[in-house]
Recover the amino acids of this structure.
C-alpha cells in the first residue's frame, strides 16, 4: 500500500519562539526540527508497511529549503522518499492555502492512505488533516489512538469529550493520529547514512499547477492584525532542583497554608 | 448573520457552544444557532434561551452519528443559502474537524484557539494567545465567510430566556465521500474511577513519568496530601491510567486549591482543564516545558527524586 505522510519542519523546541513584528509571521530562521507530533504519523506508516511486508511511505512537506533536514530525519526512520514544496510564493500560507498545496501534491501521488500527526507543534492547530480530506474528497478519521487496516478498510479508535469512538472508513482515506498511538523509533546509524541517498524531490507551486493568488498571504483567508503582550500574571517562581527542591515545595505550600 | 455551531450530546446542547452563542449575541448582529443531528428538533428550543434569535435545524439520519463530514455539507449549504457571513465554533474534537473541513470547502479563513472576539470599526477581530500564551495575537479575516473556533471553556453560557424562531433546512444531498466513514461504537467510557472534579488537592501525572509503574509515585504523594490522582490525555490514551482521571479538553475540568503536575508538559489541551486551579506546582525535567509558563512554582528536576522526597516530607509534617 502506498502511504503518504504529511510532515512539517517547525522551530526546535529548545529555541525560544518569536513572531517577527515586521512580517507578523513566526520567525523560522533559527534551529528547526521535525514536528514532534509528526513522528508518530511516520512511525504508524512504517508499522503498516512492515506488517504488510510491502508498500511505500512517501513524505510530503511544505516549507523552506531547510525543511529537507526534517524530511531526512523521517527518511532515516525508514520512509522511502520525500517531496518538499518549497517556493517563496507559499510562505505565509494559512490553513486554506496550505491545504490547497498539500492536496495538489497528494492528488499527484494518489496514495491509498494519507497520515497526519495530531497537530502542528508551532501552530497548535489540529485542523490540517480535515481540510485536506475535504479537498481530496476522501473520508476522514482524526485523533486516532489505535489504527487497524484490513480488507480495504481502516478502523480507528479515538478519544472525544465523551469517551471512546470507533470509526470505520473505506480506503482511500485520510487519518490524523493521536500522539499516544505509538512510540516513534529513533533513526539507526544505518538509517541516517541511508537517508541521504533516498529520493528527495523539491517542487514549486507552479510545478503543481497552482496559481500565485491562491497561495501564501494572497491565498489565505486569515490575517494577523496586531501583536500584543499577554495579560499580566502573578510572579511565578522557577527553580532548578539542587537536591533541596522538595523542601522548597513544602515551604511554599506551608506559606500558603496548603499543608 | 452569525451562525453558531451547536454541538450536542445525549440530548443536551454543549455548554461551550452555548457560551459562544451568548458571546455572539453581544456583538449586535443577527445570531442564529445551528443544530445538526437526527431527532433533534426539541434541542432548538433550548438554544433560544441562550441568545439565539433563530435556530436552523437539519434533521437527517445521515447526521445521527457525531461525524464531521456530513456536517460540513450541511453548514456549507446553509452558508451559501442563508447569507451567513460568520460561523463560530466552540473547540472540540468534532468541531475542529467540521470547522477545518468547512474552511477548505468554502475557501474561508479559519482562526482557532481564540479567547475573545470583538468588533473594531465594523471588522471582526479575534484574540488568540500564541507561543504558549506568551503573545496575544489580534487576528482577522481577508473575506467572508469568516470561521472562528474558541478555546474550550472561554465563555460561560448566559440564560437570557428568549425564544428562537426555528427554521428547518436540509442539504439537497450529502457528498458521496462525506457519508463513507461510519461510527461502529460511540462514546464508550473505558473504566470508572473516583471523581476528580470535587477534589481539593490533585496530583497529576503525564508522559514524563516514563512508565505506568511510576504512577505509584504520584499516588503516594496524593495520598500524603489527602488528594486525588489525575492524568493527561497522552497517558490515558496510552493505557497507563483510567479515562475517568483525565484532565483536559477531552477530559474533566478541575479547579482544586492545589494542583501538582508531575512530568506534564502543559499542552494547551491540558491547560484548559486545570487553569481554574488555585495554586499550580509543576515538576518537569524539561526547562522549556510550557507548564512552567503557568505554574506558580516550577521545579526543573527529576521527578523520580523530587516526588518521593516531597511525599516523605509531607508525611513527616502530619
Amino acid at each position: 500500500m502506498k502511504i503518504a505522510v504529511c510532515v512539517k519542519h517547525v522551530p526546535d523546541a529548545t529555541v525560544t519562539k518569536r513572531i517577527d513584528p515586521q512580517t507578523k509571521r513566526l520567525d523560522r530562521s533559527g534551529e528547526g526540527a521535525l514536528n514532534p507530533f509528526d513522528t508518530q504519523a511516520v512511525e504508524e506508516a512504517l508499522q503498516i508497511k512492515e506488517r504488510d511486508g510491502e508498500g511505500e511511505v512517501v513524505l510530503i512537506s511544505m516549507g523552506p529549503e531547510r525543511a529537507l533536514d526534517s524530511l531526512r530525519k523521517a527518511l532515516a526512520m525508514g520512509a522511502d522518499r520525500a517531496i518538499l514544496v518549497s517556493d517563496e510564493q507559499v510562505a505565509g500560507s494559512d490553513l486554506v492555502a496550505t491545504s490547497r498545496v498539500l492536496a495538489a501534491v497528494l492528488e499527484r501521488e494518489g496514495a491509498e492512505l494519507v497520515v497526519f500527526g495530531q497537530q502542528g507543534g508551532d501552530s497548535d492547530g489540529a485542523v490540517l488533516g480535515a481540510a485536506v480530506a475535504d479537498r481530496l474528497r476522501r473520508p476522514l478519521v482524526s485523533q486516532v489512538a489505535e489504527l487497524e487496516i484490513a480488507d480495504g478498510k481502516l478502523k480507528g479508535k479515538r478519544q472525544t469529550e465523551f469517551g471512546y469512538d470507533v470509526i470505520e472508513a473505506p480506503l482511500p482515506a485520510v487519518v490524523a493520529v493521536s500522539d499516544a498511538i505509538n512510540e516513534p523509533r529513533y533513526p539507526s546509524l544505518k538509517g541516517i547514512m541511508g537517508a541521504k541517498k533516498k529520493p528527495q524531490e523539491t517542487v514549486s507551486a507552479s510545478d503543481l499547477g497552482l496559481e500565485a493568488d491562491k497561495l501564501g498571504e494572497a491565498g489565505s483567508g486569515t490575517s494577523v492584525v496586531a501583536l500584543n503582550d499577554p495579560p499580566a500574571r502573578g510572579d511565578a517562581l522557577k527553580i532548578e532542583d539542587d537536591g533541596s527542591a522538595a523542601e522548597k515545595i513544602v515551604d511554599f505550600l506551608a506559606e500558603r497554608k496548603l499543608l | 448573520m452569525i451562525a453558531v455551531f451547536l454541538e450536542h450530546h445525549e440530548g443536551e446542547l454543549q455548554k461551550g457552544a452555548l457560551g459562544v452563542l451568548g458571546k455572539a449575541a453581544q456583538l449586535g448582529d443577527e445570531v442564529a444557532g445551528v443544530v445538526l443531528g437526527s431527532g433533534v428538533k426539541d434541542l432548538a428550543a433550548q438554544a433560544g434561551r441562550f441568545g439565539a434569535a433563530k435556530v436552523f435545524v437539519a434533521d437527517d439520519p445521515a447526521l445521527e452519528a457525531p461525524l464531521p463530514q456530513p456536517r460540513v455539507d450541511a453548514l456549507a449549504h446553509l452558508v451559501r443559502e442563508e447569507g451567513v457571513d460568520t460561523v463560530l465554533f466552540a473547540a472540540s474534537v468534532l468541531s475542529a474537524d467540521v470547522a477545518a473541513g468547512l474552511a477548505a470547502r468554502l475557501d474561508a479563513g479559519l482562526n482557532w484557539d481564540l479567547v475573545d472576539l470583538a468588533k473594531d470599526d465594523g471588522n471582526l477581530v479575534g484574540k488568540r494567545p500564541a507561543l504558549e500564551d506568551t503573545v496575544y495575537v489580534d487576528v482577522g479575516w481577508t473575506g467572508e465567510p469568516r470561521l472562528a473556533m474558541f478555546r474550550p471553556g472561554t465563555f460561560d453560557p448566559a440564560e437570557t430566556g428568549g425564544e428562537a424562531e426555528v427554521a428547518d433546512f436540509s442539504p439537497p444531498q450529502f457528498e458521496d465521500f462525506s457519508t463513507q466513514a461510519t461510527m461502529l461504537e460511540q462514546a464508550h467510557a473505558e473504566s470508572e474511577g473516583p471523581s476528580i472534579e470535587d477534589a481539593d488537592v490533585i496530583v497529576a501525572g503525564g508522559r514524563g513519568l516514563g512508565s505506568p509503574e511510576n504512577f505509584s509515585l504520584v499516588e503516594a504523594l496524593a495520598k500524603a496530601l489527602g488528594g486525588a490522582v489525575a492524568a493527561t490525555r497522552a497517558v490515558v490514551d496510552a493505557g497507563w491510567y483510567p479515562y475517568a482521571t483525565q484532565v483536559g479538553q477531552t477530559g474533566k475540568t478541575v479547579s482544586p486549591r492545589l494542583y501538582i503536575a508531575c512530568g506534564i508538559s502543559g499542552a494547551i489541551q491540558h491547560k484548559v482543564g486545570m487553569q481554574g486551579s488555585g495554586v499550580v506546582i509543576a515538576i518537569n525535567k524539561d526547562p522549556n516545558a510550557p507548564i512552567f509558563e503557568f505554574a506558580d512554582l516550577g521545579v526543573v528536576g527529576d521527578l523520580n527524586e523530587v516526588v518521593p522526597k516531597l511525599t516523605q516530607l509531607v508525611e513527616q509534617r502530619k
